[in-house]
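Practice set, problem 2.
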Amino acid sequence: VKWQQRPDMVQGVNIKSDPNERATVADDWRCLDGSPVSDLHFWGSYPGWLENEPDPSAEPPGIRAIRIQVYSDAPAVTPEMFSRPDKLLYEVWTKDFLETYVGSILLPWGTEPTYEHKYRYDLDLPRIFWQRRDRIYWLNISAIPMKIDFPWGWESSMDRWNDFAVNGWYENPNNWWWEMIKHPWAEKPIDMSFELTTCEGPIKW
């Protein structure tokens, strides 16, 4: 495991991230050892889907395709600013992934019982991402849903590191827009849940 930010299975929230809309989500991490990223694992759900049922009684709505992007880091230069994705370094699309039900949580807000059903996603990157030690990168995960009525959302994390997650879009170095994400009920900035793994460890001998 190169990097890990665990899902929040108590007060977690899923932030919609669709590459066909200007509403994708990104979060940062630091490369600690210079080994490449070959596998990606993350958590998410379908906000609003079977929200009155404590357990899912049907197959999830499904994802048509997942887009993975990696950006360089644009650090904050004043206390009023926040760091954000900068230059696009890497992009792949995939339809080859494993979706596994993890559990359902009762959202602790609202007057009526409302549930979110959480799923874990595991995939091998179609192309390895080669990174450099001690550099900060931004991971952008977005998904095209099978059913337009049930968009997919990326799950927030119980862990905190560096600056918080952002929401927005990127077309080219001169045309982009990002803003910091806040929890819709707690109104505090959040990080996203993901895990990066590698097929190549450091040389032992």
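Problem 2, part (b): a different protein.
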Amino acid sequence: MANLQDLAVSIVSNSPGMPTGYGVQAQLLANNLLHSGAKVASFSNYGLEGAITHIDTPFGRIEHYPRGLRPYSDDVMPHHFRHFKALHPSRKHIMITLYDVWVLQNPELDEIPIHAWTPLDHVTMPPAVERFLRKDNVSPISMSPFGQKEMDLKDINNTYIPHAYDAKSYLPTAKIKNKKTRDFMGISEDDFLVGMVAANKANGQIHRKAYAENLMAFAIFLKDNPTAKLYIHAEPSKAYGGFDLGNLVKAVGIPQENVLFPNPMDLRYGFSSQHMAALYSTFDVLLAPSYGEGFGVPTIEAQACGTRVIASDWAASSDLVSEDSFLVDGQPFWDEAQSSWFMIPKIPSIVNALKQAAELERHSQASVDFALHFSNLNVWNQYWKPYLEQVVS
């Protein structure tokens, strides 16, 4: 049997441990690799600048390389790869990318064995993504059943490995800092609480997380459910290129007393997994329709905590909700920038899903059971370990 102690892996993504979806996945993967005896480096496109350093984990050290001058740091990746390879010359070196592959444009990357863990968040594959995945040095990894189908349709040989969540942290959780979560939030146990956990990052024009459609739907739902609350776990300002959510809340007519945002400093420094689990657990439903998801980790984290999800019936989301969650309809939307199609969730369909969710009890065991398939241990043993053993052999 192949030995992962012969392997060295460079992970191209947000720095492991950053409070982002990519940062969490990078940390889970790095921990599993280190625990199996592999050497690991992080090539940061967000989370480190200026100098090579390292990240200490319970399983060993991650060599931590800083971002470059280009927006997605593909300018420095080949240099980092050669440096890390020189540190461990006897090992087999590969690069795993966990990010949009169309941003990787440095021709020097064509000389590196790349295993591209690829998000496909459109309902049609962008041409730039297809071109990258067809390169001779690239081994595509699909992260959702939808992504696998899309690559199969294009005759792109790929391996399916889903994203994962930490099952030790994300489970039904009743309290934050020894207080019942709703007491901590200052809301009643009887209020119907809708949660959104979606980064407010965009290009200033199109928001993939469908904030406008979701907030309009909640405003309509609120007319018949005036005590309902909406918690938005995101930066409300345009600081990261997203929308002015405060302005959008006013524009759709949601009263100030019906919407909650997290403490801005807590959000900036990152919430603990246990804190997030308590928030997910107290939501009556997670509101998560978008124009398209490459995976959508919050949908799995919420279900692991027993919370049903309202999601889009397209791209990755279609396959990532339990039987008692809700999928909404949409209509095509052309993304000129990537020459491919998104879908816009239909507001009446979201409203209908909110009404159905309001009739159900808060906790869903079916959601918990469904999420377990994506636990970190299961994803490592069932998908990553066999794949990497084959790579080494």
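Answer key, part (b): The mean pLDDT is 96. The first strand starts at residue 7 and ends at 14.
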